Structures are given as structure tokens and as C-alpha cells.
Amino acid sequence: MCGDVELAEDAAQDAFIQAWLNLSTFRPGTSLRNWLYRIAVNAALDVLRREPKKPSAEVESLLMTDPLAGPEAAFLQKERTILVQQAILSLTEASRAVLILREYGGLSYQEIASTLDVPLGTVMSRLNYARDRLKELLVTQFQNLELENV
User: Fold this and answer.
1) Angle of CA points 107, 30, 37, to nearest 5°
2) Reduced to 3 DSSP states, what percent helix, strand and coil does the chain have, rounded to the nearest 5?
3) Binning pLDDT at 50, 70 and 90, where does residue 132 land?
4) Are residues 81 and 58 in contact, defined by beta-carbon separation less than 8 angstroms?
5) Tell me, what CATH number does 66's domain have?
6) What is the pLDDT of residue 47?
């Protein structure tokens, strides 16, 4: 969500501190997972607001490539991964948070609504917007990438 390993580490540290300091506010019988996600998302958003906008330099640390693929396939996979990460980072904070919680965190719509303290309909519309926007951004870029490497 942060797009930078150091920012993510800062956010994680802030989240752990906030969770520890506010442990007394956790209500037994509610989802600990959602409570912690809420703290982590808020910490990430706080860190992003404090930092000036800058491009992500640590994209390579998140790459997952097939070790058996040839150099051309590995290169294309790396380029696709960079394009996807840049597209995700270009989304608004609200859309990015919903997309990451759903696609990478595996949370249900209801869990996301609870975590972000927004209505269920807002989660669905933000997720729909984020997916549509990513599709717009990536279709042309992927086609251009494939044409460049033919």
C-alpha cells in the first residue's frame, strides 16, 4: 500500500505501537483481525500523508518470477510487475486501500467496510472503480510492452 519498503516498515512499526497502546479499546467478541487491519491501514495512510510524493524505488523487492523461465520471459514478467505496481500506486488512497485489502489481504467486503469504517456500498464502488481504472491503465501499457519485445 505504501509503495516503498521503508515507508511500509515505518507504518508497521507505528501500527504495532498503536495496537499495543490501544489494546484496552479492543472489544472482546469482535474480530481481532479487523481491529488490527484498521490500525495498520490508518498507520499506512498516516505515513503516506507525512511523506512527500516520490516514485517507488524498491519495486524489485516485490517481484515474483518463474526461476525456470528464460531471460526474455523473466524480463517481461519484471516489466509487467512494475507496470502493475505503478498503476496501483497511481490510484487514490481510498481506492488503493480497498483494492489491496481485497486482492492482497483477502478480506471480504464486509471486513473491508468494518476495517475502513465505510458503508458496504462504498467498498463495492471503490473496488469497482479501482479495478476499472487499473484495466484502463494497463491494457494499453501491456500491449505496448508486448509490441516492444516482438
Assistant:
1) 40
2) 75, 0, 25
3) very high
4) no
5) 1.10.10.10
6) 78
